[in-house]
């Protein structure tokens, strides 16, 4: 039930019972009320209704409603929401006063229905009351989840997911309209789920994963401090407890899913010496410190990461791209910075973002105009305090309007314009940004969010030209929700740039395959994987039935027909070796029954790679020869690499989906993907593609030669 419908339901009936309840309320609290009236509260709208207070004023979008009230009442005002006093702050100086001088006073959260059920009875990092338990959660977050060390360990996952998005966009064609809202949500949710649990939750058709995504969406849509039942027991009673029952049901579904995830990983970590997802790491810590890492705490930590880390980043990316489409001059300037700092020889990486100030300024300006949390997470005062010269009694709910502060003309020059240049040279205005909150309850995942948004945005600008899908500017109206999404999903025209081919940097994946990697730790790791996981006697014996079947299949084909005839053996041997290797790698033939368009194209790519292999390209020996050639040879090889990479990535996705549905699968690719679950840093998609290419297809290349 939203606020307006709640008010309409109430106004038509139950006036007399409410009136008598109101009289009783006044009688019981007359002494306290008189005492508080003698103190100076912030100004308040005159339209309070008995029992309900100012609930009827809370019309979405709430941050704009509060901004309009602040124009009349000033930068700090109070509202009576049922039986709860709320104070709204729309000034940077007052927000700073709340979270510096009164930081401890406002270090608590209000007890809301959502916090009770979804927040594991107020025990999660974002909802726990200030005290020892919260300090322990904050320590766990700072050291074990959001530390630079942990985030760096999980960088391969973020890199892979960002480049997977770019690869999908590149494969769609040279010039086409793409819908970015769902792409960004898929990216951020899968990135968080892989960091947390080691697997994606989009694209596999899994019913459980689909159900969990819907639960998360519904939790986000119902979050915030705008449920009437949170303000007055009467409003909760009038609703018949419907809202709370719905939320409790969501909480049960969420808990069931998270508990099952824990059990799966607990079983896996008991079998493996090491595992590198956040969930595996927390379960390892549980073994040594069970009092700090019980299942409820772990589920709460995982849930906070998924709720806070996926939707907000996706929304920020969509607003950033919308602004760039409406300001093509800014987009050009950002691309020029990337071309200058990174060039076209390699793709931007997460570590490069610190050297791209203009890109960071674009993100800051996006967060200023379109903060993912336009109203900061509510706080509540633990004792009486003074803010802006006004008395705020204990249990006052504090709502900080970050959206209004970010558009305050007293703070910002030209506040409604999108101007990344305002932050140049360490701009004086940057300190006024509060998209992640202030004080000791500020968002602990701010660093991760900035990494994901910066890396993704940089990749999309570097790899593609972007244009609006129509003549008119992109619609910038806000939709409903606490994370302030765009009302209309963003669509844009995407055009591949030449650097797209470097996503699979030529045939050797930028010198990272076993045959091309420089001697060192990376090569030794690849050599170990090859010796133990691919070419060991155990693995080869396990795949013997495939080799036996293919050889006997060739013999059977030769035996079929007349007793004496001429046969052409070159193509027969090509077919034998190619199908044998592809069945060992991927479980399917690429000739005969499995001869589809994709198979034929891949065979042609292999032939062309073989034809161009070796060390006979003049440009490899004299740089001027590369210039004389106009880079034609390299462009051709890069295009081949792009086609090769696209095929191998598709093969990986098919098998990843299959292995998630089956308990066991016996191809080399299935085996490598199983190893990826426990050691993602050693078995990234790029490493697996390189292993498949070198350890299977190179054998075929020798025969083609």
TrEMBL record:
Annotated CDD domains: CYP81 (cd20653)
Amino-acid positions noted as binding heme in the UniProt annotation, renumbered to this chain: 443
Cofactor(s) in the UniProt record: heme
Family annotation (PROSITE patterns): CYTOCHROME_P450
Cited Pfam families: p450 (PF00067)
Entry's Gene Ontology molecular function annotations: heme binding; iron ion binding; monooxygenase activity; oxidoreductase activity, acting on paired donors, with incorporation or reduction of molecular oxygen
InterPro entries: Cyt_P450, Cyt_P450_CS, Cyt_P450_E_grp-I, Cyt_P450_sf, Plant_Cytochrome_P450_Monoox
Transmembrane segments: 6-28
Protein location: Membrane
Any one cellular-component term (Gene Ontology): membrane
UniProt keywords, alphabetically: Heme, Iron, Membrane, Metal-binding, Monooxygenase, Oxidoreductase, Transmembrane, Transmembrane helix
Similarity comment: Belongs to the cytochrome P450 family.
PANTHER family, per database record: CYTOCHROME P450 82C3-RELATED, ISOFLAVONE 2'-HYDROXYLASE-LIKE
The protein, known as: Cytochrome P450
């Amino acid at each position: 039930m939203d606020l307006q419908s709640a008010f309409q339901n109430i106004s038509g009936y139950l006036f007399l019972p409410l009136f008598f309840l109101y009289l009783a309320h006044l009688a019981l609290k007359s002494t306290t009320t008189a005492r508080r009236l003698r103190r100076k509260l912030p100004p308040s709208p005159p339209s309070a209704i008995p029992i309900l207070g100012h609930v009827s004023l809370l019309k979405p979008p709430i941050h704009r409603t509060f901004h309009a009230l602040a124009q009349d009442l000033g930068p700090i005002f109070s509202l009576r929401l049922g039986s709860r006093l709320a104070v709204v702050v729309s000034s940077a100086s007052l927000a700073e006063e709340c979270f510096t001088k009164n930081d401890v006073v406002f270090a608590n959260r209000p007890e809301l229905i959502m916090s009770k059920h979804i927040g594991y009875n107020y025990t999660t990092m974002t909802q726990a009351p200030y005290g020892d338990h919260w300090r322990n959660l904050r320590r766990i977050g700072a050291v074990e989840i959001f530390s630079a060390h942990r985030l760096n360990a999980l960088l391969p996952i973020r890199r892979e997911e960002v480049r997977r998005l770019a690869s999908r966009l590149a494969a769609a064609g040279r010039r086409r309209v793409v819908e970015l809202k769902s792409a960004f949500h898929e990216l951020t949710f899968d990135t968080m789920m892989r960091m947390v649990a080691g697997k994606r939750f989009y694209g596999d058709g899994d019913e459980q994963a689909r159900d969990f995504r819907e639960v998360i969406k519904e939790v986000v849509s119902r979050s915030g401090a705008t449920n009437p039942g949170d303000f007055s027991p009467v409003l909760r009673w009038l609703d018949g407890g419907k809202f709370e029952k719905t939320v409790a049901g969501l909480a049960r579904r969420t808990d069931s899913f998270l508990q099952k995830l824990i059990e799966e990983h607990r079983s896996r970590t008991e079998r493996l010496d090491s595992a590198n997802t956040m969930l595996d790491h927390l379960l390892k810590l549980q073994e040594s410190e069970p009092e700090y890492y019980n299942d409820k705490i772990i589920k709460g930590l995982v849930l906070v990461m998924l709720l806070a880390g996926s939707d907000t980043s996706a929304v920020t990316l969509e607003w950033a791209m919308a602004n760039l489409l409406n300001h093509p001059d800014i987009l050009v300037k950002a691309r020029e910075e990337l071309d200058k700092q990174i060039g076209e020889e390699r793709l931007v990486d997460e570590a490069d973002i610190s050297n791209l100030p203009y890109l960071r300024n674009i993100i800051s300006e996006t967060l200023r105009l379109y903060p993912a949390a336009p109203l900061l997470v509510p706080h509540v005062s633990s004792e009486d305090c003074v803010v802006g010269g006004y008395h705020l009694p204990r249990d006052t709910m504090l709502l900080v309007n970050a959206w209004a502060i970010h558009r305050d003309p007293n703070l910002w020059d030209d506040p409604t314009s999108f101007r990344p240049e305002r932050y140049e040279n360490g701009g004086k205005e940057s300190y006024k940004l509060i998209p992640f909150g202030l004080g000791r309850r500020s968002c602990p995942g701010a660093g991760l969010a900035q990494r994901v948004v910066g890396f993704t945005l940089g990749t999309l600008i570097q790899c593609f030209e972007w244009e609006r899908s129509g003549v008119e500017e992109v619609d910038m109206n806000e939709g409903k929700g606490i994370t302030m999404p765009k009302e209309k999903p963003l669509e844009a025209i995407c055009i591949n740039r030449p650097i797209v081919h470097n996503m699979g940097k030529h045939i050797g994946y930028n010198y990272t395959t076993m045959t091309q990697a420089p001697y060192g730790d990376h090569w030794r790791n690849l050599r170990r994987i090859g010796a133990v996981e691919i070419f060991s006697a155990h693995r080869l014996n396990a795949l013997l039935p495939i080799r036996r079947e293919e050889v006997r299949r060739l013999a059977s084909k030769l035996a079929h027909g007349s007793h004496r005839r001429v046969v052409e053996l070159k193509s027969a041997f090509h077919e034998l070796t190619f199908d044998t290797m592809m069945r060992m790698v991927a479980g399917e033939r690429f000739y005969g029954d499995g001869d589809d368009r994709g198979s034929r194209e891949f065979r042609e790519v292999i032939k062309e790679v073989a034809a161009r292999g070796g060390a006979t390209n003049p440009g490899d020996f004299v740089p001027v020869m590369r210039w004389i050639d106009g880079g034609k040879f390299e462009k051709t090889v890069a295009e081949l690499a792009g086609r090769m990479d696209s095929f191998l990535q598709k093969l990986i996705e098919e098998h990843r989906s299959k292995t998630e549905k089956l308990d066991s699968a016996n191809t080399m690719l299935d085996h490598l993907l199983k190893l990826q679950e426990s050691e993602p840093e050693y078995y990234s998609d790029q490493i697996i593609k390189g292993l498949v290419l070198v350890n299977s297809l190179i054998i075929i290349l020798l025969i083609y030669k």
